Amino acid sequence: MIGQMMDFQLTINSVMRHGRSLYGNQEIVSVTSDNPLHRYTFEEAFGRVCQVAGVLADMGLNAGDRVGTLAWNDYRHFEIYYAVSCSELVTHTINPRLFPEQLDFVVNHAEDRVIFVDPTLLPALEAIKDKLTKVERIIVMTSEEHMPDSSLALECYETLLAGRPTEFTFPEFDEKTASSLCYTSGTTGDPKGVLYSHRSTVLHAMGGAVPSVFGLTTDDIILPIVPMFHVNAWAIPYAAVMSGTKLVFPGPKMGDGAAIADLINAEKVTVSAGVPTVWLAMLNHLRETKQTVETLTRIIVGGAACPQAIMEEMEQAHGVYVHHAWGMTEMSPLGTFNTIKPELSDLPADEKMAYRLKQGLPPYGVELDVFDEEGNAQPHDGTSFGSLRVRGPWIASGYFKLDKEIIDENGYMDTGDVAVIDEHGYMQITDRAKDVIKTGGEWISSIDLENAAIGHPGVAEACVIGIHHPKWDERPLMLVIAAGEQPSKEELNAYMSDKVAKWWLPDDIIFVQELPHTATGKLDKKVLRTQYKGYKLPTA
């Protein structure tokens, strides 16, 4: 028997209609390269979305055509997000931190016909101008008086919008229609395209907006520092419109700790989301200036594990609660969110912190489990590790234009992570499968070792890789960027000795000036493994 309910299409268009009709007076505040602080309402924003849609309609694009964006988190990028997807086109968000050869690859692989670019990021396109054979138009996201000189043929965003109607009749289409495209960071081989649908995007935003996850309300003011150029800024541009939440966009200032603190205080931001390095930069600024962030109550940290030291300083010095979250490009990206269950709320602080340091609980919409090498599900006992596999309505079933099967016989996708799940359902990543260090038949988590080191005040960043050892197969080598006065190897090992098993401690520690990162800011361990291949450990 089939239920007698309406077949209502879950499209981004419906999100726009909802936000515009109910929360038209809510604000969007932006820092942009041509305006230190732009401010307007949801109603004004969606009026301009209609103007952008009119521009796109005049271009003669076909349903499903890809429109690239090379931009920061700001109000024009927000307008393009909605105008492109709601026009039955595909928003291809391009990471400006890609290397030129990767940028060339993703633009051509996606077959972008149009690219919207922030003027500060135009040099990235100019560097590959001879490779842009499929790109027909490049539109600079600024006004006429701020148009840059360039060897490329450029059009002005504001000139194209000028005088256009602020109403537009958007097409009707199926919720499974592609909405946006994001490429992985390409840590192994070329970046791979993940093609999201309207349905997956709406469900993902709904899953993130619920009280036990982001918990957005009309009283909140959210600052998404997680970039709009990668995995849709964790769906915040959609979830905020659903919830009527004021948006504050940091523009090109997203990595500037002082600018972020000033923006939080000026706009009375209550919640924010970003990677650990952003919060470390802000904490350094607050410490140096003896300032605080009075209105900020909680932050969501993803992209990398948040060190305990950051969590404790945020809470103790500034009253800001830190939530861990975890996900992947293939997961839109939300996979888990850390909130403490009622049965754990009365635990002693150190025991509760042990739970908070885990990646968290899957929201409704994500099912996950860990499996051994034979494909057997592992017990949820907090110690039995295995490959982490996931499934759900906002998880990829394949890659764009790539004939590669990524779903197993039970409908799960292998994340490439090694993890454990405890008896309360909390998932903890112990390592990437390719990064785990196998020593004497046992596994060492490079992530746990890095997190142990980063708590030391003399450590700014740490990275651990496995090095061949004639007796143990592999042993850990730690590479460290010092913060201030450099600690000795002995001092750092002593500091870590009560945080990890003693046999985990690195056989050698090398202090370096910098560490390689991928375009999404993650440590690029494949570069280090190549660089230190053949390195002889002092214990070998």
Write up what this structure looks like.
With 540 residues, this protein is of the alpha/beta class. The protein has helices at 12-22, 42-58, 75-86, 100-110, 122-126, 157-161, 198-209, 236-243, 257-267, 276-289, 308-318, 349-356, 446-454, 489-496, 525-531; strands at residues 27-32, 35-41, 66-70, 90-93, 114-117, 137-140, 155-156, 178-183, 193-197, 221-224, 246-249, 271-274, 298-301, 321-327, 334-337, 367-371, 386-391, 413-421, 427-432, 437-439, 442-444, 459-469, 473-482, 508-511. The strands form five sheets. The protein has an eight-stranded mixed sheet, sandwiched between helices. Strands 7-6-5-3-4-8-9 form a seven-stranded mixed sheet, with helices on both faces. It has a four-stranded antiparallel sheet with strand order 16-17-18-19. A hairpin with a 6-residue loop joins strand 14 and strand 15 (334-337). The longest helix is centred in the N-terminal third of the chain and has 17 residues, at 42-58. The chain is globular, with a radius of gyration of 23 Å. The termini are far apart.
Give a quick summary of the entry.
By secondary structure, this protein is an alpha/beta fold. The protein is built from 15 helices and 24 strands. The mean pLDDT is 94.
Fold blueprint:
Blueprint: H1 12-22, E1 27-32, E2 35-41, H2 42-58, E3 66-70, H3 75-86, E4 90-93, H4 100-110, E5 114-117, H5 122-126, E6 137-140, E7 155-156, H6 157-161, E8 178-183, E9 193-197, H7 198-209, E10 221-224, H8 236-243, E11 246-249, H9 257-267, E12 271-274, H10 276-289, E13 298-301, H11 308-318, E14 321-327, E15 334-337, H12 349-356, E16 367-371, E17 386-391, E18 413-421, E19 427-432, E20 437-439, E21 442-444, H13 446-454, E22 459-469, E23 473-482, H14 489-496, E24 508-511, H15 525-531
Parallel strand pairs: 1-11, 3-4, 3-5, 4-8, 5-6, 6-7, 10-11, 10-12, 12-13, 13-14, 23-24
Antiparallel strand pairs: 1-2, 8-9, 14-15, 16-17, 17-18, 18-19, 20-21, 22-23
Helix pairs in contact: 1-8, 2-3, 7-8, 9-10
